Amino acid sequence: MNWDNMEDMKTDTKHAMEIIGERLYEEPPHITLIQEIIGNANDEFRSHEVIDPTILIDFQENADGYYIIFNNNAPPIPKHFFLEDYQTFFKSSKSAETGGIGFVGVGAKQFVTSKGDRKVITITGDIKNEILASLWMHKEGQPVKVAVTPKYSIDEILGSQKIQHTYGTTMIASLTKEEYDELKEGMEHIIHWWWNYGLLTNKFKIFVSGKEIGAWIPNPKEKHVRDFQQNSKKVNCIFWISDEELHDDLLNIVWVVADKRIKNKKLETSTRVKKNFGKRIFCYADVTKLLKGYVNMSKEDFRNSESDVRKVKERVRDEFWKFIVSQDLFKESEQDVTKNVELEILMKKFNEALQSEKFKNWNPFMAKKNRIVPVLDSDGDESLSESDGYQKTEDESSTNGNGGILGDDDGKGHSFDKSGKEKGEKKTRKSKGFDMGEINAPKDERESWIEYDEKSLLINIGHPFFVKHNEPLTLREFNKCRVIVDALVRHQIENETGDIQMILDEARNLLHEVS
Amino acid sequence: MKIPIKIIQVKTNGETKNVIILHSSDYFELKGDSTEKIKEFEKLYSNIIDKIKKIKGAKYDKLPSSKFYQLGQILKEFNQKADNGFEIKNYNKSISRDFELSKDYIYDLITIAELFKKIEILDSVPFSYYRALKRKRKELENLGLFEKEKKRLNKMGKEDKLPGREQYKVELIKIIEKSK
């Protein structure tokens, strides 16, 4: 094709400004070209529900130069669109507006202008009906020139290029020798980088130089699929635990939209995940249904300032930590080890509160009134054999197997004298409260509960919500208070100790008292 | 001040876990550093249970005396460590439950581990004979006969001349009576 006979490509100023304004792509143009071509083909596969969607990629080297050739079997680009918008520089439309466009897009056009002596040939159509073709050429410092059928014949457009096109859309792009070598050598890696999720979920097939590229699977035994809903829309998460440490670019959450990697987010795992699992675990989070409209024009990141984006990302991060906890891989940080909310301090706060007049009915193991217990007192005026006081009993002796009797307040045991000779008196004793412990039970949905048989209250420090709000210390302490109150509230409700409104009011006051 | 604790069993999500809880007696006197110590104790206790299960296998009744002695050593060591910082309020209940041995048996195991050297426990002598001997220990010691009886018992075991266990208990009574 003679350069001088070709026409200047028309320019869509709006898109040109967007591209310049956003400095669109981070990746070099020949890499961008790959992701744009596969991405746009996949859009067409999806919108037309193509059976056996397939992309073929080949390389061709001849006296004219170095070429990469793509073909997809999505419906061809509609004629009216191909002749107009497709030939307009920086114009990009989506299939919803245009019908199938195969591959087009800003990326491919930007590729043409990225270097001198670039050439892109597009062929679309069905060999049984009509074949359309166009050629874009660029020379350094010159506007892009265009030649389109039927004004130019297909032979003129193709020149020395030998192409077999029968259906769908074919694109031939010229490359520099370096680009050609890089793509030929690294195509499998590039496809896995951007499109592994699509391959894993069988959205399409890709053949490179006749060889099918399968999905990259880090460890077939350690694939965990976990879904969740946000705003009634499903997010699919596939977690993998690799046998080996992974490159930083795969850690730890890889955001996916329309089967394509958008960006990854490496989390701070060194202090929170056991051993080296923080470098071996990653998650493909398919957020298409929630964030498709929030992807930048480059498709390399989201518009992160949007609150919807932040909310979804935060939710996926929560799911990641839940997964870590569910696999028993969560470890407490150094800070957690050295600083803790001490149980005895919580017990003190609660028992002081529960022994006050205001909350006297909130101790689950204490009768509503004070207990009368008999104690020895030679000046007492009551025969202890007649006492019907309360005898505290412990399970057993408590001296680690060495025998001994458990006492009570002030080192005195309760007294009872069968003979009735001993004198004593009855003293009012307040309960010392309930026993308290922590349990690490990530799979238990309860944040806290009362073990009635053991007269104790347990805090579930493995609960995902507790883990999520583990720092700072003040928040952790508040959470412990909250879940203790929660267990007490449930006890109050189950025992119908008052109307719900009153219980909730008192619970709030108790929380204020101890927090 | 020892930390007052209880070792309880809790069912969570279909499995049973041992949990160490802070007992509500005397906690006011604690220094405010018990939580981490309790966690460490929980690990220690869990390790002891694992060790004992490993030695015990399916059942205790087929266990040779040397294994019983090993159990006694483990329990003795555990008691020393536990006694250092904790007061286990439900010691007997929890130990019996988790080690599947009666309170008396555990006491005997620990005492035998204290009274006998490892080489003095032979697999050719069933452990119940050592228990019988241990129960007469004070009386035999008072007569200066305990060490001698240890040797006689092991000799009978080595030569396969052990009387029945009940017969051995009678022999011990006779030895004590005769030497008074």
Task: Give structural notes.
The complex is a heterodimer of chains A (515) and B (180). In chain A, 31% of the residues lie in helices and 23% in strands. In chain A, helix 2 packs antiparallel against helix 5 (106-113), helix 2 packs parallel to helix 7 and helix 13 (473-494) runs antiparallel to helix 14. Chain A folds into 4 domains: 3-212, 2-Layer Sandwich (Heat Shock Protein 90); 220-326; 335-346 and 434-514; 374-429, no CATH class. Chain A has 14 helices and 22 strands. Chain B has 2 domains: 1-117, no CATH class; 122-180, no CATH class. Chain B is mainly α and 180 residues long. The termini of chain B are far apart. Chain B is 61% helix and 12% strand. In chain B, helix 1 runs antiparallel to helix 2 and helix 5 (127-135) runs parallel beside helix 8. Chain B has helices at 34-56, 65-85, 91-99, 103-115, 127-135, 137-142, 146-158, 165-179, and strands at residues 3-12, 15-22, 86-88. Strand 20 (435-439) of chain A pairs antiparallel with strand 2 (15-22) of chain B.
Question: What is the element layout, followed by pairings?
Answer:
The complex is a heterodimer of chains A (515) and B (180).
Chain A (H helix, E strand, L loop, with lengths): L6 E2 L1 E2 L1 H10 L6 H20 L5 E9 L2 E8 L6 H5 L4 E2 L5 H4 L7 H8 L4 E8 L5 E8 L6 E4 L5 H5 L10 E7 L1 H24 L4 E4 L2 E2 L10 E8 L2 E9 L11 E5 L2 E6 L15 E6 L1 H4 L15 H20 L7 H5 L4 H12 L16 E6 L5 E2 L39 E7 L5 E5 L8 E4 L4 E5 L3 H5 L4 H22 L5 H15 L1
Parallel strand pairs in A: 2-5, 3-10, 14-16, 20-22
Antiparallel strand pairs in A: 1-8, 3-4, 4-9, 6-7, 6-9, 7-8, 10-11, 12-13, 13-16, 14-15, 17-19, 18-19, 21-22
Helix pairs in contact in A: 2-5, 2-7, 13-14
Chain B lengths: L2 E10 L2 E8 L11 H23 L8 H21 E3 L2 H9 L3 H13 L11 H9 L1 H6 L3 H13 L6 H15 L1
Parallel strand pairs in B: 1-3
Antiparallel strand pairs in B: 1-2
Helix pairs in contact in B: 1-2, 2-4, 4-5, 5-8
